[in-house]
Amino acid sequence: MIFISIAESVKLLKCAIEEYIRKTGGQLVIEDHSVEVYLPVVIDEVPGGVQFKMKGRIENDYIVVEECTVTVENESHNIKPVDLMNWTNYVNENFSYACKSS
Which residues contact 75 (CB under 8 A, 6 or more apart)? Predict the structure, then answer.
């Protein structure tokens, strides 16, 4: 179920994802050089809720995504690489202001 083929190309600026999580109320768990990201996803029509989870590693100032799943009603679905790239670009573009040193 894990896709690793595009892991090298899906990089999130660590400070941008931290800011995104701060704004959205998600959770970032870092152990050694591995990282897990849990994000709240609100879809009213889905009973039992939705969980968004990413796993990856920390490399310099980036989080490299190695696995990304959405769980809907206890059924896991991998995120399509193109969707993940779009989301990554969105986060990096809109929240990277937190990366600028003051």
Answer: none
